[in-house]
């Protein structure tokens, strides 16, 4: 059984892996499909954003889903461990 500190570390790691993957994908597809030079802004070109979204491969979507699931599962484990700890400590009301 993992300690609370180990679960918190695992959660931070899972969240960081997901964030890094999403940033990497964003940079990759933004380089492949840049905003239109005619786009006045603000923000990204919506047409280019839709094209980037369509271009993401199934394998990349699957990896994103796996990373997201890992982060959610770790978060759930941490929440369950916190509740169990409170119940053992008699702090269920707090």
User: How do the helices and strands follow one another from N- to C-terminus?
Assistant: HHH
Distance between the termini: 24 Å
Can you count the beta strands? 0
Structural class: mainly alpha
Rounded Rg? 19 Å
Low-confidence stretches: none
Shape: elongated
In percent terms, what proportion of residues is strand?
under 5%
Mean of pLDDT: 90
Write a concise keyword list for the protein shown above.
single chain; 94 residues; mainly alpha; elongated
Protein architecture, described:
With 94 residues, this protein is an all-alpha fold. The chain has 3 helices and no strands. It has helices at 4-32, 46-55, 58-89. Helix 1 (4-32) packs across helix 2. The chain starts with a helix and ends in a 5-residue tail after the last helix. The model has no long low-confidence stretch (mean pLDDT 90).
List the helices and strands and how they pair.
Layout: H1 4-32, H2 46-55, H3 58-89
Helix pairs in contact: 1-2, 1-3
In summary, what is this structure?
The chain has 94 residues and is mainly alpha-helical.
């Amino acid at each position: 059984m993992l300690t609370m500190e180990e679960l918190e570390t695992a959660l931070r790691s899972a969240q960081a892996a997901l964030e890094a993957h999403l940033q990497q994908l964003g940079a990759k597809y933004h380089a492949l499909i840049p905003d239109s030079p005619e786009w006045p802004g603000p923000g990204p070109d919506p047409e280019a954003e839709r094209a980037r979204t369509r271009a993401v491969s199934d394998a990349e979507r699957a990896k994103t889903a796996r990373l997201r699931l890992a982060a959610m599962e770790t978060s759930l484990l941490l929440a369950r461990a916190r509740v169990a700890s409170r119940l053992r400590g008699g702090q269920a009301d707090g």
